[in-house]
TrEMBL record, chains A, B:
It comes from Mucilaginibacter defluvii. Catalyzes the formation of acetyl phosphate from acetate and ATP. Can also catalyze the reverse reaction. PANTHER family: ACETATE KINASE (PTHR21060), ACETATE KINASE-RELATED (PTHR21060:SF15). Mg(2+) binds at N7, E385. It comes from the Bacteria. ATP binds at K14, H209, L210, G211, N212, G213, D283, M284, R285, G331, V332, G333, E334, N335. The keyword NAD does not apply. Its EC number is 2.7.2.1. This is Acetate kinase. Belongs to the acetokinase family. Homodimer. Signal peptide: none annotated.
């Protein structure tokens, strides 16, 4: 089975092709700056452990033109990964927002598309790009089954006490204002891997996804019972450029006393805050460099970032009344030993003891960085959202 | 020493008079609806275990007129508590917001008044009423030393990682946007009592103040290291009418997609949310009644209220890497056994075990409601902010 995984944004398309018998992709690529001029395609084919990279600079006015170029690359002599676009059996689409009605991986019908469109007000930056990706994929991969995999779906098992806000009922009923949670494909993937590793299906696990966006999930026996992002991906942890938790009155103060408007605040809190707001950089590698150069601002930002994670570890341990493992994943979680160290030191009251030595080492794949006597396992598990999407597509179609 | 404690709001004045040798007030009272017509004074004198209540309905145009009536009651034959207003040695004023500069109980000078006024933008609902109270007290109790006791002061020991938001630095430096925390007089009082009770000066304590407003504090060796309210008293726990934590994007969504303005959101989140928003009632007694009558909304609201407390208990245990006691206080914390039960059951992973039997009983004073095997003590300690203010005034003037 050939599974083509697409993550279609407002001006970009990311993709990977899997043969269903392997966890390694056959090719992967990125189309950037769609409709913005100076568009770029980077297409990488993996053959016998080697990478063949093709880069194209050309004008791509819309998603259809972009996908048409990708289609040509898939069959291009010398780097062909399929004989014919019709050899693609399934296209798996990553969809950020599935709301309360799209709670499972599902074959895309007109009704499903309609529901994704109805969620535009809740996901104005994401769902419109996904619909473009679906429509283009439908016109190009005509023989393929189109499947939607939702970033919110894994969190739909949360109990009402965890997903409701304490505002009048009608805001939930009329506008759907509640905690949805995001990064669900990643939280599901790494918690599944942790359960396998622990050989404990009823394990109590906290997954910590630290990329540009950051979120945590409390996963009890494979089911998410709480998560740190909310109505949108702004809430919770401190991120590359997002503030995470903040007193809502800060916004009211800035509007009423300092003349800000909603558009300015949206940009401030999503694009100019977080690590970037505190240090001028959003990439943890730059901020680590600042720390090494003696920057107090960078040291404070790291402390705040790690402290917020610690508090969620405590909160979710209390919510589950127990903890078997915590899992670090994504760019920062997989690579930044300092963040893991700072989040886990002096946590023996919660049964967490990290091995400074193990933690400092760089190794590929799943690894256990807890001290031998630690009651709670501290795991580093590389996330793989594309593989998870491919797996879910395969599982759906084999049922 | 006669210490007159005043809590002056925008349209009310609460007061108590203490003789410094006793923890029981000599009299207490409330002036309501100042400047609103149909004003009311309720004045209670405590003599030999009896209460003598005087109620007056009259027109009180401003704080000065109100305090003038109180002055008359203090010396009124039959219920006199002092011979002469000049017998009042100290007036202790509760001040909500002391910002970063007023961090300790202090004698009120012109400079202190100026600083309280500079904080009007951060505390527009409170500090102006306090200044009125101070000026009236200065003109009526001319011989008394005027002392300010701040609700924010106890939280000023928090480390920077706990009090900073992840927004650009200049919002902190230019506007003072940070976590201040409130209810500090209460958190200080009950944590002090808990330390005495445990006979452990370096105890790790979580104080849970549940009144109409609700907040928690992590108190390590007598010093606050974190608290749940933020720039304003809106953030953190679910309260009678306030939402507590909410994704800041909810506000942006309501402004951009539903046409709300800042004034409407301020009112929505502060006055129409919390338990009131979820059930139509803000008083826990009414909501308990609804539960007993089978209301699902009331049951959910209680679950949410208790769940939020549990998560902060976990978060603060992680922050302190340990926990010796949790303390419930204020109207709900002292009286609502169901909230305490729901917040503490299934928390043995954190070392918390509540005694259902002890917890269900109503008793005055400090009491221990933990199960005998509980590692963490669960205490109920009645708060007494007026007494704490009087104690702090006395301590200041005896130095
Ligand atoms: N070696 C490293 N050390 C520290 N941080 C790293 C390292 N490599 C990547 N990162 C961090 O990972 C982030 C990107 O994570 P990633 O999971 O790719 O993000 P996303 O998928 O959310 O865009 C970068 O911004 C950087 O902060
Ligand atoms: N017996 C009781 N059972 C449950 N809740 C109670 C009881 N008595 C008082 N309360 C709660 O206490 C709240 C008031 O608490 P209090 O500490 O006096 O508030 P504040 O000082 O913040 O105005 C009431 O709104 C009510 O919800």
């Amino acid at each position: 089975m050939n599974i083509f995984v697409i993550n279609s944004g407002s001006s970009s398309i990311k993709y990977q092709l899997f043969h269903s018998e392997s966890a390694e992709p056959v090719c992967s690529g990125l189309v950037e700056r769609i409709g913005l001029g100076d568009s770029l395609i980077k297409h990488t084919v993996f053959i016998n452990g080697e990478e063949k990279v093709t880069k194209l600079e050309l004008d791509i006015p819309d998603h259809e033109a972009g996908m048409f170029e990708v289609e040509k690359l898939l069959v291009q002599p010398g780097i062909a990964v399929v004989h014919n676009p019709d050899d693609i059996n399934v296209v798996g689409h990553r969809i950020v927002h599935g709301g309360e009605t799209l709670t499972q991986t599902t074959i895309i019908t007109e009704e499903v598309k309609e529901k994704i469109k109805q969620l535009y007000p809740l996901a104005p930056l994401h769902n419109p790009g996904h619909i473009k990706g679906i429509e283009v994929a439908q016109s190009i991969f005509k023989k393929a089954t189109q499947v939607a995999v939702f970033d919110t779906a894994f969190h739909q098992t949360m109990p009402e006490k965890a997903y409701r806000y304490a505002i009048p009922d009608n805001f939930y009923k009329d506008y759907g204002i509640r905690v949805y949670g995001f990064h669900g494909i990643s939280h599901k993937y790494v918690s599944g891997r942790a359960i396998e590793h622990l050989q404990k299906p009823d394990a109590k696990i906290i997954t910590i996804h630290l990329g540009n966006g950051c979120s945590m999930a409390a996963v009890n026996a494979g089911k998410c019972i709480d998560t740190s992002m909310g109505l949108t991906p702004l809430d919770g942890l401190i991120m590359g450029t997002r503030s995470g938790n903040i007193d809502a009155s800060v916004l009211l103060y800035l509007i009423e006393q300092q003349g800000y408007d909603a558009a300015e605040l949206t940009s401030l809190l999503n694009k100019k805050s977080g690590m970037f707001g505190l240090t001028g950089y959003s990439d943890m590698r730059d901020i680590t460099k600042m720390i090494n150069e003696g920057s107090d601002a960078a040291a404070l930002a790291y402390e705040m970032y790690a402290y917020r994670i610690r508090k969620f570890i405590g909160a979710y341990s209390a919510a589950m009344n127990g903890l078997d493992a915590i899992v670090f994943t994504a760019g920062v979680g997989e690579n930044d030993a300092l963040v893991r160290e700072m989040a886990c030191h002096d946590m023996d009251f919660m049964g967490i003891q990290i091995s400074t030595e193990e933690n400092a080492q760089r190794k590929p794949g799943l690894r256990d960085v807890s001290a031998s006597q630690s009651k709670v396992k501290v795991l580093v598990i590389p996330t793989n959202e594309e593989l998870e999407i491919a797996k879910q597509c395969k599982a759906l179609l084999q049922n």
